[in-house]
């Protein structure tokens, strides 16, 4: 049976153009070389050096764009280089997300690099970092990774909110932050299907039920429709049949 990441890569390759598939193979090979200490920098490979991701010098990163590991430049430029075949044209964001997740896994960056890529990245790059969190080996330091999740939940970017509430949040967010994340989905219109582990974590959660009931009353008092997703989560929290 394929692992989730192997399935992700297989599905991605089937959706890419020939040129983008070749780019993906090269980018992942360079990322894997970085993990083993044989990686090259952007200047050595002739990679695009117009990326915005720069940071202080570390073992994984030198002072300027031309000193970045090649895989980081591939991470930043994936939106230009990773394109779906015509028959999969609607999968544009999905294929770029998948490529970036695979790059992060292959490179196995340290916590400092993961945090830097998030903090200095575009919204698309931040989303990819969030999606990659449960797949990184070694995993990033939990407090700093959770800070990224919490940052995303403070935004009103629905794609960031959805990515933040994936498997990493299901495992690591405390009860209060997780409940706030569920409410954020309801506030912003993110389908609760995006919340990993929803049925397990919501089951019998009396405090969540109270918060949802209060929110439903507020909406009703204001003459606004109570979303079906709220009723769905409330049934879970009350242990009612769904």
Secondary structure: elements and pairs:
Layout: H1 4-15, H2 18-35, H3 42-45, H4 70-81, H5 92-107, H6 111-119, H7 123-132, H8 142-153, H9 158-164, H10 167-172, H11 175-188, H12 198-202, H13 206-221, H14 228-237
Helix pairs in contact: 1-5, 2-4, 2-5, 4-5, 5-7, 6-7, 7-9, 8-9, 13-14
Structure characterization notes:
This protein has a domain at 4-140. Helices cover 62% and strands 0% of the residues. It contains 14 helices and no strands. It has helices at residues 4-15, 18-35, 42-45, 70-81, 92-107, 111-119, 123-132, 142-153, 158-164, 167-172, 175-188, 198-202, 206-221, 228-237. Helix 1 (4-15) crosses helix 5, helix 7 (123-132) runs parallel beside helix 9 (158-164) and helix 13 (206-221) runs antiparallel to helix 14. The chain starts with a helix and ends in a 5-residue tail after the last helix.
Q: What Rg is obtained from the alpha carbons, in whole angstroms?
A: 20 Å
Shape: elongated
Helix content: 55-70%
How would you characterize the largest beta sheet?
none
Provide key terms for this protein:
single chain, 242 residues, mainly alpha, 14 helices, elongated
